[in-house]
Design brief:
This protein has a six-stranded mixed β-sheet with strand order 9-12-13-6-14-15, sandwiched between helices. A four-stranded antiparallel β-sheet has the order 5-4-7-8, with helices on one face. The protein has a three-stranded antiparallel β-sheet with strand order 1-3-2. The model has no long low-confidence stretch (mean pLDDT 84). The two termini are 69 Å apart. It is an alpha/beta fold. The protein is 61% helix and 10% strand. The protein folds into four domains: 167 residues, no CATH class; 222 residues, ABC transporter type 1, transmembrane domain (ABC transporter transmembrane region fold); 170 residues, Rossmann fold (3-Layer(aba) Sandwich), CATH 3.40.50; 70 residues, 3-Layer(aba) Sandwich (Rossmann fold). The protein has 27 helices and 15 strands.
Length: 746
């Protein structure tokens, strides 16, 4: 994958924006369990009272509370509250909120800062809890518990109507200090959170004593917190939609750029590179492999960045809710990692095999479709069916194996997740029973555990897809990083003006890449403008290889080819090929119309030029016979025309270009002798000033050529006119006599 990382650079801004949105989404998702915990703990269990700092408290109750605070704590509490009585300016407003103000003064919170509020929370919680406990003991001395052991007198023996707090206020300083020490020691064992939670009951009781609407307070807290949860949900949903759009756009852009780069690279391949990659493999790499990359880019953007944030954030938040149960999450994560690693080790080799099997299936399918007529002619349908079924079965078996591994993995992951939930409930229930954990915190811990597990599930999906995508990326990179054997020079030369088109082969030798022997050896001849130079020889003598060197489909491995005295390797390929009209042995037509195929050589060609080229190529009669004429449809590859018609249309296309050099690579093989003769006569008139090279095995086609080059096993064994070669070249004479009678050759 790293070999293709540069194709992500144009989309880095979108990817960074997506990562930012994912962070926002993760923070929103991580906040939801915390708010749910607050609704349960504060909204339901604590009736909407958030902490132990009451917003208002009666003067008599505050005086009781101050008895159990030291001097500095008492001063802090007094500074945080202001006294409101009947003479206060805002008395009318406050008496509506706190009806008890009508009977006694009330202290109202001044709105301290966050730091001051946190300090007051601890101080007031302890004081309120002590006051509440003493009031409970005074009301029911038989239930003496909590602070009963620290009291300096027996509450059960107090006279009726005696106020215990009045007695406590009259105690000597030493006894007060002893009582304070006992209080601190007992509360130290409870923990600050439990002290605050217990004190909230006293705050709620104080609100009721003030005449406040506690039900309204509770509903207001629940609705406010619920509204925040809805807002966070909308934010997360908006982020999901935006990230989905950005990830899809980035992935589609990467796929588009890869296809473009792959196509451009392949268009610059020489025949040597095409020999390294089969057509079926190149098609698979351009389609299936790039689709794999596109899919993994989407998943990487949406999951790779989101999963670590949600996983790490979930661990931190879960530790805050239930620090004593961290080992449960660690156990589940360890089990998931072991499972994912095992699946990765099993599936990775199979994923590497899948792409090559797809190549094989495409190859068999392509051969069957293109060679269907041959298969039917030899009645080999059964053999080809078995061959296809074999390739199909190999791919199916491999895919089934991978799918079974994945199918097994998902239930195991669900088992781990459900076991995790059961363990959390079992351990958490004991924590709640021992008053070391609140119910809301237990529910939040479960939610965070689920988020952590889901983060690993998302990563596991990536580990399933990534191996196959990695193989696909390597296959694409192999094509993109292929060193081209034929390239333009850094400082290309230009052909002289005016351009004549004289072709000179100087000691030309050629050897295919990886071959041990030369296919062509020390070829020397000159093809002149206004003349026809024919190349003839037996099958495998190197005729087509020779003409493939001219447009630089291959480069010579020895010697040089000169056109007008310039080595063709010193000229830009585009300029070289602009001078050549190449007609291959197998006429290649493109899907479209007859006109679009002819205009392939020159988009700006006039209708008259197209008509003239078709007339010279002896294809006008065929075109005129069709109702649509030049607008007649041509199927893909020219499947709806005959071999001879295809060759003549290919010749007409080259004639539209009007190049100074023509190369006919056995382009008349599918023509009958009458059409062949008529076409050559018309060509001679049209290409009188051009350099013409004709590769053929028909002696009748080239017997009037100004120069005939005879090849045998890659070497020139004869060169001259037909008469010269009949007299002095045994190889040519054998070819000629095998085709025509001696009388016809005279």
């Amino acid at each position: 994958m790293l070999r293709l990382i540069k194709y992500l650079k144009p989309f880095r801004l979108m990817i960074l924006l997506a990562i930012g949105l994912l962070f926002v989404q993760a923070m929103a998702d991580l906040s939801l369990p915390d708010y749910m915990s607050r609704i349960v703990n504060v909204g339901i269990q604590q009736s909407g009272v958030e902490d132990a700092v009451p917003e208002a408290i009666r003067e008599s109750q505050l005086d009781k509370l101050l008895l159990f605070l030291d001097e500095s704590e008492g001063d802090a509490v007094r500074d945080a509250y202001m006294l409101v009585n009947a003479g206060s300016p805002d008395y009318a407003r406050y008496v509506e909120d706190y009806p008890a103000l009508a009977s006694e003064p009330v202290y109202v919170l001044r709105d301290p800062g966050a730091a001051e509020s946190a300090a007051l929370n601890s101080v007031l919680a302890k004081g309120l809890l002590v006051v509440s406990t003493i009031e409970q003991l005074a009301a029911d001395p038989e239930s003496a518990a909590g602070l009963g052991g620290e009291m300096p007198f027996d509450l059960s023996k107090l006279p009726p109507g005696m106020d215990v707090f009045t007695l406590l206020a009259q105690l000597p300083a030493a006894q007060r200090s002893q009582l304070q020490a006992g209080i601190d020691e007992r509360f130290a064992a409870m923990g600050e959170n439990m002290i605050i939670q217990s004190a909230i009951v006293a705050v709620r009781a104080e609100y009721e004593a003030l005449g406040m609407d506690t039900a309204r307070l509770q509903n207001r807290y629940i609705l406010r917190t619920g509204a925040l949860m809805l807002l966070l949900t909308f934010v997360a949903a908006a982020c999901i939609i935006a990230v989905g759009y950005l990830s899809a756009r980035s992935a589609a852009g990467v796929a588009r750029d890869l296809r473009r780069a792959l196509f451009r690279k392949v268009t610059h391949f020489s025949n040597a590179e095409f020999d390294s990659f089969s057509t079926a493999s190149l098609i698979t790499r351009t389609t299936n492999d790039i689709t794999q990359i596109q899919m993994v880019v989407v998943i990487m953007i949406r999951m790779v960045f989101y999963s670590p944030i949600i996983g790490i954030g979930g661990v931190i938040r879960a530790g805050g809710k239930g620090s004593s149960m961290w080992w449960i999450i660690a156990l589940a994560v360890a089990a998931l990692i072991a499972l994912i690693f095992g699946v990765f080790q099993i599936a990775m080799p199979k994923f590497k095999k899948v792409q090559s099997l797809i190549d094989r299936l495409n190859l068999v399918m392509r051969e069957n479709l293109s060679g269907m007529m041959v298969i039917r002619a030899f009645n080999n349908q059964a053999f080809e069916r078995r061959r296809f079924e074999g390739a199909n079965r190999d791919l199916t078996d491999t895919m089934l194996f991978v799918s079974r591994v994945i199918v097994v993995m998902m239930p195991v992951m669900m088992l781990i997740m459900n076991g995790l939930m059961l363990l959390i409930i079992w351990v958490g229930a004991h924590e709640v029973a021992q008053a070391t954990m609140q119910v809301g915190d237990l529910m939040a811990f479960m939610q965070y555990a689920l988020q952590i597990v889901m983060a690993f599930l998302m990563l596991s999906m990536l580990f399933i897809i990534l191996p196959r995508a990695s193989v696909s990326a390597d296959r694409i990179a192999d094509v993109l990083e292929t060193e081209l054997t034929i390239t333009d020079p850094e400082r290309p030369r230009s052909f002289p003006t005016p351009f004549a088109g004289e072709i000179t082969f100087q000691n030309v030798s050629f050897r295919y890449p990886g071959a041990e022997e030369n296919v062509l050896c020390n070829l020397n001849f000159t093809a002149r403008p206004g003349e026809t130079t024919a190349i003839i020889g037996s099958t495998g003598s190197g005729k087509s290889t020779l003409v493939n060197l001219l447009p630089r489909f291959y480069d010579v491995t020895g010697g040089a080819i000169l056109i007008d005295g310039v080595d063709i390797r010193e000229v830009a390929q585009r300029e070289l090929r602009d001078k050549i009209g190449f007609i291959p042995q197998k006429g290649v037509l493109f899907s479209g119309t007859i006109e679009s195929n002819l205009r392939y050589a020159d988009e700006a060609a006039t209708p008259e030029t197209l008509r003239m080229a078709a007339d010279i190529a002896q294809v006008v009669e065929f075109i005129d016979a069709k109702p649509e004429g030049m607008a007649s449809e041509i199927a893909q590859g020219g499947a709806n025309v005959s071999g001879g018609q295809k060759q003549r249309l290919a010749i007409a296309r080259a004639l539209v270009k009007r190049p100074p050099i023509y190369i006919f690579d056995d382009s008349f093989s599918a023509l009958d002798f009458r059409t062949d003769a008529a076409l050559r006569r018309a060509l001679k008139e049209q290409t009188g000033e051009s350099t013409v090279l004709i590769v053929t095995q028909r002696v009748s086609t080239i017997r009037h050529a100004e120069q005939i080059v005879v090849l045998d096993e890659g070497e020139i064994v004869g060169q001259g006119t037909h008469e010269d070669l009949m007299a002095g070249c045994e190889t040519y004479r054998e070819i000629a006599l095998s085709q025509l009678k001696r009388e016809e050759l005279a």
